[in-house]
Write a structure and sequence with these properties.
The protein has 398 residues and is α+β, with helices and mostly antiparallel strands. Among the domains are: 132 residues, no CATH class; 133 residues, Histidine kinase-like ATPase, C-terminal domain (Heat Shock Protein 90). It contains eleven helices and seven strands. α7 runs antiparallel to α8. The longest helix is centred in the middle third of the chain and has 86 residues. The chain is rod-shaped, with a radius of gyration of 43 Å. It holds the Pfam family HisKA_3. GO terms for molecular function: kinase activity. This is histidine kinase. It comes from Actinomadura vinacea.
Length: 398
C-alpha cells in the first residue's frame, strides 16, 4: 500500500507537479523526525533547557530542507552541529538522526567516493559520541558496534538506491533511444514507400499517357478518312484513361491519413502481361509475345517488377521507336532466374530523348532489390533492347 502511494506521489501528473519541488518534499520527509523531536518538550528527559533544546534541534533539522538540493553541504553542516554538540557536552537528541538522513542522501548521489567519505565521517562521529557519552569499555564496545551497524545499513541502503536510480535512468534513456530509432525507421519507411509510389505512378502515367497520345494522333489523322478507325481509337483512349485513373486511385489510396484505404485490386503481375500486350497492339504497335521454359511460382514483388519493366520498355518503344517500329517480348523461365527481353526495330540510337525520363533508373532500382541486373541500349542492327534478369533462388517450381 505504501509503495503504491509513493509511486502515485512520484508519478501523478499534473496534480502534484507543484508539490514535487525538492525542498517541499524534503520538508515532508523530515516531518516525522521533527514531530518526534518535539516530544522531548513534554518532559525533562534531556538535561538541557527548552530554549536550547529547540535551538539544537533546529540546527540539526533545518538543513534537511535542502537535503537533496545540496546533499554534501547539508551533510557537512549537520556534522559540524553534531561536533559542536559533543564539544559543549549537549546530550544526544532525537534530531541527531538527521546525520543518517544526510548520509543516505550522499550515498545515494552520483559519486560513490563522496558516499564512502560520508560513511567514514559518520563512523568517526559514532566513535566520538560513544567516547563522550558512554561510560565503561564494555558499554562502549556495544555502542560502537550498534552505531557502526546502523551507519553501514544506511550507507548500503543509499548505495542500493543509487544503483537503482542509475538502472532506471539507463532504462529510460534506452526507451527514449529506441523511440527515436523507431521514429527514424518510420520516416525511412515512409520515404521508401513514397519512392515506391512515385515509381509506380511514373510507370502507370507514362505508359497510359503514351498510349493515349498515340491513339489521339491516330484518331485526328483518320477522323476524316476512316471514321471507324477514329472511333476505335477514341474508345481505346477512354478505356486507357479509366485504367490509369483506377491504378492511380489504388496506389494513392495508401496515402490517406485516416488509415482506411478501402478495397483495391491486386497489383499486376506476370499473368497480366498478355493484357498489356493486347493493349499495346490496340495502340497500333505490332507486337509478338512468347514464353519459354517452365513457369515458376514467383512472389508478387517479382511479378510486379517483371510487369513494370515490360510496360516501361514498350512505352519507350511507343514514344521513341517511330511509326513503323515493331516489338517483341520474350519471357524466359530458367532454373534460378527469370529473364524478360523486350526488343524493337525502331530508331534505336537515333531516337531523341528529352532527358526527363526516369524509366531506366526505375528498372534498375526494381531489379536491384532482388539482386538482379538490367541491360538496356541500342541494338547493333538497329532498334533498342532491354534485358532484365531477376534471380528466383528462394522460389519453388510449380
Amino acid at each position: 500500500m505504501v509503495s503504491r502511494v509513493w509511486a502515485w506521489f512520484r508519478g501523478a501528473r499534473p496534480v502534484v507537479d507543484a508539490l514535487r519541488s525538492r525542498p517541499l518534499v524534503d520538508v515532508f520527509l523530515a516531518l516525522p523526525l521533527s514531530l518526534y523531536a518535539l516530544t522531548g518538550l513534554l518532559g525533562d528527559t534531556y538535561d538541557v533547557s527548552r530554549p536550547m533544546y529547540l535551538v539544537w534541534n533546529a540546527g540539526l533539522l533545518a538543513p534537511l530542507v535542502l537535503r537533496r538540493t545540496y546533499p554534501r553541504a547539508v551533510f557537512a553542516l549537520i556534522c559540524l552541529v553534531c561536533f559542536a554538540q559533543v564539544v559543549v557536552n549537549v546530550p544526544i537528541l532525537p534530531s541527531n538522526m538527521s546525520v543518517l538522513m544526510g548520509l543516505y542522501t550522499v550515498a545515494a548521489g552520483p559519486s560513490i567516493r563522496w558516499g564512502v567519505a560520508a560513511a567514514l565521517v559518520t563512523v568517526g562521529g559514532v566513535f566520538l559520541g560513544t567516547a563522550r557519552y558512554v561510560g565503561g569499555w564494555g558499554d562502549q564496545k556495544y555502542g560502537l558496534l550498534l552505531g557502526s551497524v546502523f551507519v553501514a545499513g544506511v550507507w548500503l541502503l543509499g548505495l542500493h538506491m543509487r544503483t537503482r536510480r542509475a538502472y532506471l535512468r539507463s532504462v529510460e534513456e534506452r526507451a527514449a533511444r529506441l523511440e527515436r530509432e523507431r521514429d527514424a525507421e518510420l520516416q525511412i519507411a515512409k520515404a521508401g514507400e513514397r519512392a515506391r509510389i512515385a515509381r509506380e505512378l511514373h510507370d502507370v502515367v507514362a505508359h497510359n499517357v503514351s498510349v493515349i497520345v498515340v491513339q489521339a494522333d491516330g484518331a485526328s489523322f483518320a477522323i476524316d478518312s476512316d471514321t471507324g478507325r477514329a472511333r476505335q481509337a477514341l474508345e481505346t483512349i477512354s478505356s486507357t484513361g479509366r485504367t490509369a485513373l483506377a491504378e492511380m486511385r489504388r496506389m494513392l489510396g495508401v496515402l490517406r491519413e485516416d488509415g482506411d484505404a478501402g478495397s483495391y485490386t491486386p497489383q499486376p503481375g506476370v499473368a497480366q502481361l498478355a493484357e498489356l500486350v493486347e493493349q499495346i497492339r490496340g495502340s497500333g504497335l505490332p507486337l509478338e509475345f512468347a514464353v519459354e521454359g517452365v513457369p515458376l511460382e514467383l512472389s508478387e514483388g517479382r511479378q510486379l517488377t517483371v510487369f513494370r519493366i515490360a510496360q516501361e520498355a514498350l512505352t519507350n518503344t511507343l514514344k521513341h521507336g517511330g511509326p513503323r517500329a515493331a516489338a517483341r517480348v520474350l519471357l524466359h523461365y530458367g532454373d534460378d532466374a527469370i529473364e524478360i527481353r523486350i526488343t524493337d526495330d525502331g530508331r534505336g540510337a537515333a531516337a531523341r530523348s528529352d532527358g526527363r525520363g526516369h524509366g531506366l533508373v526505375g528498372m534498375r532500382e526494381r531489379v536491384a532489390v532482388y539482386g538482379g541486373e538490367v541491360r538496356a541500349g541500342p541494338r547493333a542492327g538497329g532498334g533498342f533492347e532491354v534485358v532484365a534478369r531477376i534471380p528466383v533462388r528462394e522460389e519453388v517450381r510449380r
